[in-house]
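queue> holo job accepted (zinc ion)
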Amino acid sequence: MTLLIDNIGELVTNDPSLGRGQLGTITRAAVVTDGGRVTWVGRAADAPAADERFDAAGGAVLPGFVDSHSHLVFAGDRAAEFAARMAGEPYTGGGIRTTVAATRAASDDTLRATATRLRAEALRQGTTTIEVKSGYGLTVPDETRSMKIAFEVTPETTFLGAHVVPTEYAGRPDDYVSLVCGPMLTAVEPYAKWVDVFCEQGAFDADQSRAVLEAGRERGLGLRVHANQLSAGPGVRLAVELGAASADHCTYLTDADVAALADSDTVATLLPGAEFSTRSPYPDARRLLDAGVTVALATDCNPGSSYTSSMPWCVAMAVREMGMTPAEAVWAATAGGARALRRDDVGVLRPGARADLVVLDAPSYLHLAYRPGVPLVRQVIHNGVLI
Ligand SMILES: [Zn+2]
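queue> job finished
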């Protein structure tokens, strides 16, 4: 069945060969989908006939958001810890263990219900592709069930057994790394596409992070790194050296880090929700973009340091606080996220792409940053289906 989406005031294709500028915008546009794929994009006046029609009512249409970094498999919340931070306490990352304890104590059904609810919440806000990590189990059985549940929610699943060293391994981090690289990796492998590590003081050092990433790569997993969030550590350079798809956070970077990213296929994924929720300085997206680094935006949705599932909000924050133009931020939240997941079928609207579209109750993508916090997503189309 074919679907014509027409009366589009402004269409963002992210394909410069189809329209104007980096976003490849077309005014008075239409899109045709067939099943789960885009089959035609262009001026509405030239659109072919289709079985069904959706009237965009003059609103802007863009590719569905690609959220390339989230942690949806957990139990409990940490609202009190957030309140304490807002009252002046610093963020250290140690609160992750609070969520680990709650997650271990929760039933599969409880974990599944939370992950499913958050996935639906993100979809309503236009996120049609989402990456989901484990990392709050930190035992073989708890990481395995976390990965199974993540895999029920999305095919973009990431094993983050190396999130922190769990309490029972205090003082023996290398023993825990051996567990992650051996039995834990074997158990989660059927459900994992990616492997990730929190390379940071208080989490895993360069050698431990390298061991985890190389073990994952030997099993055929793609690489991602939580890098340079709290300090200018070795994470970014390790990510680039090992050919990781993405270095995530990138808040504290040396000039050498920026140069290494610019010279690589590793995307810098910026997560403004983490800085917002920890009242920390935002990463400097302008510096990265001016150096030629590919930048993605993602939510980092998790109960401790960034409990938002809203990509439109991330766009607004990136524009206001991180030096991005609205066009750069929209690109980073769609095509940039797709690059961070090494996908070329999402984050773009052209024939052959997946039929994932967001229809705004606004005439231009500019309104995503211009009208922050306003629910502008009027309709989501996922795999060619009106949600
Ligand atoms: Zn994260």
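queue> The CA atoms of residues 210 and 238 lie 7 Å apart.
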